[in-house]
Amino acid sequence: MTAPTDAAARRAVKPVICYPAHTLPAPGMALYSTARQGLSKVDEVIVPAREAVTFHVPQGHFFRITSVQGPQVGDLNLFNANDLSERFYSGKTRALHGTHITTGQRMWSNFPTLRPMATITHDTLGWYGIDEFGGSVHDVIGTRCDPYTHNLLAGGQYHHCCHSNLSRAMADHLGVPANEAEAHVHDVLNVFMCTGFTRGTGQYFMKASPVRPDDYLEFFAEIDLLGCLSACPGGDCSSKHSSDDAACYPLLVEVFKPEAGRLKGWSSPQSNGYDRSHGRQLGKAA
Questions:
Q1: pLDDT at 284 over 80
Q2: What percent of the chain has pLDDT over 70?
Q3: Three-class SS of residue 199?
Q4: What is the pLDDT of residue 276?
Q5: Contact between 123 and 210 (Cβ < 8 Å)
Q6: Does residue 242 come out as left (phi exceeding 0), alpha (psi in the -120 to 50 range) or beta?
Q7: In the beta sheet, which residues pair with residue 120?
Q8: Ordered alpha helix ranges (H), the chain
């Protein structure tokens, strides 16, 4: 293909940030920091290797995902515990914050609520930044490993991809068959996973996670949450996923309650203020 004569000029146009984040409602990080000083553990659950579990976090509580035995990444789904139709929206989180998220950034819910579900309050891998390959940790770009793509690329029936793990865990929680619960599974936050896009081809890549035992990612629950976390079959995702080849380890989820009075002035965020009329009178068909 022949490039136009002004190709260089077209490429030289400077980019514009689509969603400038300075107008977002700011999280109360100082308040959360104060609340973190007086926490008591109220629940914990171990996520076995190549499996997933659900857990509950009341609004105004903290939860922490910790590496406990070896380098391991996790795929996290979040729901409004009182309305499963409100769930984590990775695409909008990515558009608002970037391809990877860390302390002070938030996990946003889908339309029409579009509000903060959880705020990251501490990240022991926050030092990693962006490496020479363009990789970083805690991505909102990879959807999750799944048996459909595995079947498409390699054939076979592998049942411990994160998508299937999350489906089984939601099935157990809801008391329904896994293929029915599957509809609730959505694009994830890849906790501890180190990923990026290749510069030459723009392909999604993974590399060995820098996570080590005792590293953790901590969140503040802005609303009542149901979480579902899979310990990825890729382990640290240094070579492959969607198989039993990688060394895999469990993950620990802990829920903490702050001392009374530590969150004075805080309130759970309301649903998005858009009136949902879409330019027409509400309740009227075209």
A1: no
A2: 100
A3: coil
A4: 95
A5: no
A6: left
A7: 219
A8: 7-11, 29-36, 90-97, 147-154, 162-174, 178-181
- Give which of 151, 134, 146, 154 is closest to 204, Cα–Cα: 134
Q: Are 263 and 31 in contact (CB under 8 A)?
A: yes
Q: How confident is the model at residue 282 (pLDDT cuts 50, 70, 90)?
A: confident
SS3 84: strand
Determine the pLDDT at residue 21: 87
- The b/e string for 201-226 (b: 16+ C-beta within 10 A; e otherwise) is eeeeebbebbbeeebbbbbbbbbbbb
Which single residue is written with the structure tokens 């149901």? Answer: 226
What count of other Cβ atoms lies within 10 Å of the Cβ of residue 49?
Answer: 19
Place of tokens 């009227």: 284
227-262 confidence digits (pLDDT tens): 999 999 999 999 988 889 999 999 999 999 999 999
Question: In angstroms, rounded to a whole number, what is the distance separating the alpha carbons of residues 186 and 277?
Answer: 27
pLDDT tens digits, one per residue of 18-65: 999 889 999 999 999 999 999 999 999 999 999 999 999 999 999 999
Backbone angles phi, psi at 267, to 5 degrees: -140, 150
Q: Can you give the pLDDT at residue 285? A: 74
Q: Is 92 exposed, middle or buried (0-12, 13-18, 19+ CB in 10 A)?
A: middle
Whether 55 contacts 207, CB under 8 Å: no
